[in-house]
Amino acid sequence: MLDQIKGLHHVTSMARDARQNNEFFTKKLGLRRVKKTVNFDAPDVYHLYYADEVGTPGSVMTYFPFPNIGRGRHGVGEVGTTVYSVPEGTLGYWEKRLADEGVTDLSRDEIFGEKRLAFAGPDGDGFGLVEDKADKRAPWAKGGVPSDEAIRGFHSVSLRLRDGGATEELLKFMGFEEVDKAGNVRRLAVKKGNGADIVDIETLPGAGFASLGAGSVHHVAFAVENRAKQLDVRKALMDTGYQVTPVIDRDYFWAIYFRTPGGVLFEVATNEPGFDRDEDTAHLGEALKLPSQHQHLRPYLEQHLQKLED
Which domain of life is it from (predicted)? Predict the structure, then answer.
């Protein structure tokens, strides 16, 4: 069993409208946009990052907003719900805030003894808030949400699978342990993680397969401290039979990718170098930052990319 993985690093999803996406995360959820850059493979499309003050691994939600993309179809073989952690006793505040902001599909439930508020993103994305009194991570304090109620970071992700067995074994190999089960959901967690430590596996044998589009999670990334530990993970996965990409420089972290038995795309990302490598912490996410290979496109992109704010 591996011991290098320390919880979630980021979740990357698809959206239809960049401005709407930015408004949802920065205004309605009160997160900080910590990076405004572009898709490495499609530089005419933004890559937007939302997180806590500095983009701490385990708090980072990222989006590719493809203009006019069709909406995804939810089903098995995908991350179904991305869940954030909020302080104990704050779900009432959030339910009112989100309802006042026009957020849809609000509902309350409780699982594994945790109170949860589910809601939808602008493209039908599945989100949740869970009260976690043990979460001591610092929130972004300047996003319009009082610090006592603000989002701390990720709590968990939920994978929807027809058969969760092989993916559960993979997660156990990656250092996760089963800590609870309820109905068709099994909860796995990594000990001594970064606070974003939980993966739930929801087994839905008769469900249809998901199809990628706006509102779909493209991949979920797991955190390792540095490149040396990432290489250890890569070798172990390949020795086990997984087809893993070479290490790819993503400017703010290094990444490897592989497809899981249930169809979900996993990434393992480094905590280094971080989002302050090309911007001062006080000004994260303000300027358009471009990968070096796309710098020559700056005049065109600054003219044609959608304005995120007035």
Answer: Bacteria
